[in-house]
Amino acid sequence: xxxxxxxxxxxxxxxxxxxxxxxxxxxxxxxxxxxxxxxxxxxxxxxxxxxxxxxxxxxxxxxxxxxxxxxxxxxxxxxxxxxxxxxxxxxxxxxxxxxxxxxxxxxxxxxxxxxxxxxxxxxxxxxxxxxxxxxxxxxxxxxxxxxxxxxxxxxxxxxxxxxxxxxxxxxxxxxxxxxxxxxxxxxxxxxxxxxxxxxxxxxxxxxxxxxxxxxxxxxxxxxxxxxxxxxxxxxxxxxxxxxxxxxxx
Amino acid sequence: xxxxxxxxxxxxxxxxxxxxxxxxxxxxxxxxxxxxxxxxxxxxxxxxxxxxxxxxxxxxxxxxxxxxxxxxxxxxxxxxxxxxxxxxxxxxxxxxxxxxxxxxxxxxxxxxx
Lengths: 249, 113
Description:
- The structure holds 2 protein chains of 2 kinds.
- Chain A is α/β, with parallel strands linked by helices.
- Helix content of chain A is 33%, strand content 22%.
- Chain A folds into 2 domains: 1-32, no CATH class; 40-248, Rossmann fold, CATH 3.40.50.300.
- Chain A has helices spanning 40-55, 71-82, 99-106, 124-131, 175-178, 180-184, 204-214, 231-248, and strands spanning 16-18, 23-25, 30-37, 59-64, 88-94, 110-115, 141-145, 162-168, 188-192, 219-222.
- In chain A, helix 1 (40-55) packs parallel to helix 4.
- Chain B starts with a helix and ends with a strand.
- In chain B, the strands form 2 sheets. Chain B has a 3-stranded mixed β-sheet with strand order 2-1-6, with helices on one face.
- Chain B is an alpha+beta fold.
- Chain B has one domain: hypothetical protein PF0899 fold, CATH 3.30.2320.
- Helix content of chain B is 26%, strand content 32%.
- Chain B has helices at residues 2-18, 41-52; strands at 26-34, 61-67, 70-73, 79-81, 97-101, 105-112.
- Chains A and B meet through strand 3, helix 1, helix 6 and helix 7 of A and helix 1, strand 1 and strand 6 of B.
């Protein structure tokens, strides 16, 4: 509000007031139409990543979940079991430390750590830069292990072909309803740590039903990286995903 | 707190539009934010205040237009309102919905002086 006369300060037109002694004039306001997506820049980087992945026939998979759902453990087991069959590399995002990358490297996997510092998610620009550090630059699977967080990473497209969300049975089976954004665009939900089912109240069919309410086309696999239950189905899914990229594009 | 990242992107977009032009400051920024988007309005306002501090958008009014959620039901093919992703179709009770509105996250306009 204009302090002199009380007229609306956000008027879009140039106008003048005639006052008793002085005359003051408001600055000219211009309205610039922008109509641009707030995520446009990220999406542009994501597109560049995506084009690069397709050109090199890399199957990029964005792995997302809450912290502690078992992403790194599943990846180390997956690499151990499948390394003879396919090339696998990983970009791993955490706010601090390179402990996850070290754990993945300890089984022989090529792992690039991104520390996001204060940022709670990976974005397409960070991923684009970390690709430069990968020596495998053709074919194979590239896992992008996102920062453990069930909210923020959902918004940021990284240029991946597939989105996989892990939900461990020690969390709640209603998580898909509580954090719908994460499940909405996912291709696959992995219910992890199912060896712990006897000790927790978690209804796997209910969790899947809730996830399918949010996303009717989501596929679900229950597994345990510790006992090996369900891993075969996960490996088959990975092989099909990789085939889709190498054959179709 | 992805809202802060969004506000940094917002500031980048603003900068692109004012580069090389002679404006004194930004008075108002208008956004369309869909009701279904995982963006919290108060966090966005807070992020905007932080991100614009010391820039010529400092103190600008952040005007947020909330866009209501809307979907087409895959079962009954009606266009229905959708407040939450987990809601059933208001018409037939099924859960298979294709969202048509409410996921916007767009900078619509800004007012400069």
